[in-house]
Amino acid sequence: MWRHRAFMVGTGLSGLMAGAALLSLFWTPHSPTQIVVRARFKPPSWEHWLGTDQFGRDILSMLMAGAQTSILVGLIAVSLGLGLGVALGLLAAARRGWIEEAVMRLNDLTFAFPVVLLAILITAGWGPGISNAILALAIINVPIFARLSRGAALTIWAREFVLAARAAGKGPVRITAEHVLPNIANVIVVQATISFAIAILAEAALSYLGVGSQPPDPSWGRMLAESQNHLFRSPVLALWPGMAIVLSVLGLNLMGDGLRDLLDPRLGRRGRA
Amino acid sequence: MRNWLAVAALPLLLLPAAAEAGKSTVTLAMALEPPGLDPTTGAAAAIAQITLYNVYEGLTRVNQDATVSPMLAESWTVSDDGKTYTFKLKQGVTFHDGTDFDAGDVKFTYERNAAEDSKNKRKKYFTNMASITAPDAHTVVVALKEPRPTFLFNMGESTSVIVNEEAAATNATKPVGTGPFKFVKWTKGDKVVLARDPGYRDVGAIKLEGLTFRFINDQAAQIAAVMAGDIDLIPYSRAAESIDVIKANERLQVTIGTTEGETILSTNNKHPALSKLKVRQAIAHAIDRAEIIEGAMFGAGTPIGSHFAPHNPDYVDLTGRYPHDPAKAKALLAEAGHGSGLELSLKLPPTGYARDGGQIVAQQLERVGIKVKIANVEWPIWLKEVYKQKNYDLSIVSHVEPMDIGIYARKNYYFQYDNADFNAIMAKADATTDPATRSKHLKQAQHKLAEDAVNGYLFQLAKITVKDKGLQGVWRNSPMFVNDMRSVSWK
């Protein structure tokens, strides 16, 4: 039962973030980019629920619009990484031999770099910006999904029903599509949730370092970076984006854990026993 | 019980104060670590901030109000045509390595700076010297090819300090000069330590026994360090947002002075749209300086309308030439054929005034219909893309060199202005020896730049000094990058 509660909390937090992002597409209390110098450093009030920042921008609106950026980056980066990574992993598992060897060694190469370092490397070469940050995070996700799906696919390929399918004359493409992919989907979904959380964290880190989202596009990471200079005057400025990052990453991780428990029949049985 | 606690706490409270009283050294915070410590071969401003007037001295010195006084030269005379300067040198001056200072050192230094392989940032000061002769050991005669009205000021800059032949090759790592403080050690990434030279000619006038320059890049960390008492002085603080916090602190004091830093919206005058005068005028009308100074600098800064420092006697206030007027800006854009919109990039180097000011400028430009794409870049990329390759539309940067209106006459400078009329005005200003005539031409030059709206002229960077209240004699204004510590003392 406890695990399910964690799942509920995780889903709740993630839902809050997604809801804020969705809502910000149509409405925010104020403009998230409008600078009003004379209204800066305002404490929370009915007009500005979380107060205003050093430029007099409404913090709640910035957080909502920042959620949009985070989700966009996470969604695109993970989708790209998942699509390419799973394809490579399935290919490696289906063909084995030198193809598998080449794919996996290429993965090892990417794995050798820490996530943020590789992202900085890429944005240093192609220039800072949200699209390059997305690309960098996608590239990082490719080997994660490739390795995971290859490993999972290999165990499926060794199962009797796959042997039966081969005996019945099905080709590798059909077997992959009809038998392997459906059986590894749950692992991939769980990994996607966790990768999504990592991508949000990495985007915040990149924006904090100045190579991610560029002003005036709102971003939690940059809000954090900009608040740093005002720590003595208004420490609460750093608190809001920090909390937003912590809560959404925590939420996604809890949701991922819960999903794993719910989707994996073996774990589920053991858990319930 | 309460009394007993108070008594027990007493020694704890007294201790720091007691330690303070005997203080005879000063720890300064610097944002950047210099690449070397020889200002005659390195260009970084951080070199001068440590060494100028502390370790090295020039023939002349520049004072806080930009006037010039004797330093290694005792006195001088100038010929009527402004081309020959005869310096009488001080006697009994020694370098930190024990060698005597004489006319030969001046000749050596200036000739080295003018040499083919010289890396001096202001090599042109020295290549303009036709001859440097030493009639006796304490007289130097410098003959110029072209008269330079700023010559005596220039000889007090960091690039003109006198070095001796024995130490010249190793000055970058182990500086040897004639100044009141000699080099002790340089811990890379942390600090440079200097100590009072007991052999200094006027050692009695130097109150401080030692100086420590600590490198703390983050401006918030600098403020934290000064509040904790680890730092006594931040001579060039960028933390305008912390002024109120410092003012509330009983032990600390903040002063706001002027610098030579004209902060401008650098404009690529060869960009298809920005090459049109009307577009540049529209930008000038779109800019609201008051909002930028308040928003980015928390009110610390003086609005400017041309490329000239307001504390200079020849300054003309041209901020009213293109007043803030969004409607007029829109009309001018439409006249120039950009009524339907114009998209420009704005590359911002990593300084508070640029990053914060940039967001405000972008919003002001967007109000009149110019779409601005901001890119935050690091210094090496800024130097490469903006300064060298001129691959930019707009940027924000502070031009901190003293009297640098001449950069607009430079061929192929990154503004890409190249204006024959302006060049003619500057040539006349540089050729004259008559102060009144020079002043007239300098004023003309300011008018010309304002009229052509070459760049967006924003504000003069303020010198924000954060210091312990007990420190006195610290420069309030900054006619150039220097931390002259010879007259600083503890109360």
Question: Tags for this entry?
Answer:
heterodimer, A: mainly alpha, MetI-like fold, B: 491 residues, alpha+beta, D-Maltodextrin-Binding Protein, domain 2, Dipeptide-binding Protein, domain 1, Dipeptide-binding Protein, domain 3, 3 domains, seven-stranded mixed beta sheet, four-stranded mixed beta sheet, globular
Describe this structure in words.
The complex is a heterodimer of chains A (273) and B (491). By secondary structure, chain A is an all-alpha fold. Chain A has one domain (69-272): Orthogonal Bundle (MetI-like fold). Chain A has 10 helices and no strands. The longest helix of chain A has 38 residues, at 172-209. Chain B has 491 residues and is α+β, with helices and mostly antiparallel strands. Chain B has 3 domains: 2-31 and 180-251 and 469-490, Periplasmic binding protein-like II (D-Maltodextrin-Binding Protein, domain 2, 3-Layer(aba) Sandwich), CATH 3.40.190; 57-169, Dipeptide-binding Protein, domain 1 (Alpha-Beta Complex), CATH 3.90.76; 259-462, Dipeptide-binding Protein, domain 3, CATH 3.10.105.10. Helix content of chain B is 30%, strand content 24%. In chain B, strands 11, 12, 13, 14, 15, 16 and 17 form a 7-stranded mixed sheet that branches. Chain B is globular and about 70 Å long. Residues 4-20 of chain B have low confidence and may be disordered. The chains are: A mainly alpha (273), B alpha+beta (491). At the A-B interface, loops of A face helix 6, helix 9, helix 11 and strand 15 of B.
